[in-house]
Amino acid sequence: MILITGAAGYIGSHTLHNLYQKKRKIVAIDNLYSGFKWAIPDTSIDLYIGNCGDPELLQFIFKKYKVESVIHFAAHLEVEESTRLPIKYYKNNFFNSLSLIEQCLKHDINQFIFSSTCAVYGTPEKIPVSESTPVNPLTSYGKSKLATEWALQDLTSSTATPLSLFTENSVNKLKFAILRYFNVAGAKVGGGLGQSTPNATQLIKVASEVAVGKRSHLKIFGSDYPTPDGTCVRDYIHVDDLAEAHSLALEYLESGGASGIFNCGYGQGFSVNEVVSSMNKVIKRELPVEYVSRRAGDAISIFADPSRVKNTLGWKPKYQDIDLICKTQYEWEKEIISRGL
Ligand code: UD1
Q1: Is the pLDDT of residue 130 over 80?
Q2: Given CA atoms 298, 271, 184, 34 in this order, what sign does their dihedral have?
Q3: Which residue in 10, 89, 121, 141 is the catalytic one?
Q4: What domains lie within the chain, and their CATH numbers?
Q5: C-alpha 102 to ligand 1 mean position (Å)
Q6: Tens digits of per-residue pLDDT, 46-62?
Q7: What is the pTM of this model?
Q8: Is 185 in contact with 237 (CB distance < 8 Å)?
Q9: Among this protein's residues, is 141 annotated catalytic?
Q10: Residue 122: what pLDDT?
């Protein structure tokens, strides 16, 4: 049995669908802060509405189900917001994760997959970014994720006193895969699922909302960065490819793979202007844009070196196409309207 936290959210729900199609047994937690019940595909999947760090809820679930693996998505993820409300990020992203990891150790969970971010690197000195690139998060979002990574590594290290000593076993057997996502975008190929959070801030999501008329125009935050066209550069990865990376990471740990960190991106950077051009191509007209000042906390330019995720997990991305990413996001935005979601 796999416990998925944040299972009704954007990346959590795509991963849940991926694993569900593979007939894996799943139990879900979501507090529905930015997730939706309808994103869970089947009422036979038990969804607990609550806090992923709540010890009582976790003890209940770990006793009721034979959970062997945990995939932990539940988090806040707005970079700019985290510069204004750091306590919100440390409490939800770090404190709750720590409590979840503690319960996993106490209940002898075998595998833990953690949803981390390339924001842990800040603006790196060298790109592409490999897992050994020095970490230097610029915001409380990145720092709260990095703090969780460190706690996970410390608490599962061979020298740490096993928390399972408090239960029947004396061996600390929890293994982890930390997936550092680059810029996740797009929606399920074929439709039916996508990011639905109101007031989302991610570029391709916002651009799609402008395209369907939910917003009047797209603000481009900064055009004076030291990049080829002055706008920031990111590595946009399709959410279905990222979901598959989780599934592969789980199989890898289950079949005896060692704990590790994996950068999840395609290894190709696109500027904000290039993304807008792609969206223009998809919608066959020009999105209204306004160039405004820089946004707090933004890294200048970052894209992944995906060698490790490909070589170790056997990840073979299927949707590495910025136009397809924009198209699936745009189609989903129209589906939100037609389904009244
Ligand atoms: C960051 C993280 C990413 C994380 C995501 C969660 C980095 C490098 N990446 O993405 O790992 O998963 O947060 O939310 O830290 N932009 C505009 N106008 C808009 C929206 C965005 O110009 O309306 C620009 C931003 O300034 C930025 C780029 O588009 O340069 C991408 O922004 P966004 O989609 O918000 O993601 P990141 O903050 O890069």
Answers
A1: yes
A2: positive
A3: 141
A4: 2-184+237-264 (3.40.50.720), 186-235+267-304+318-339 (3.90.25.10)
A5: 31
A6: 999 999 999 999 999 99
A7: 0.96
A8: yes
A9: yes
A10: 93
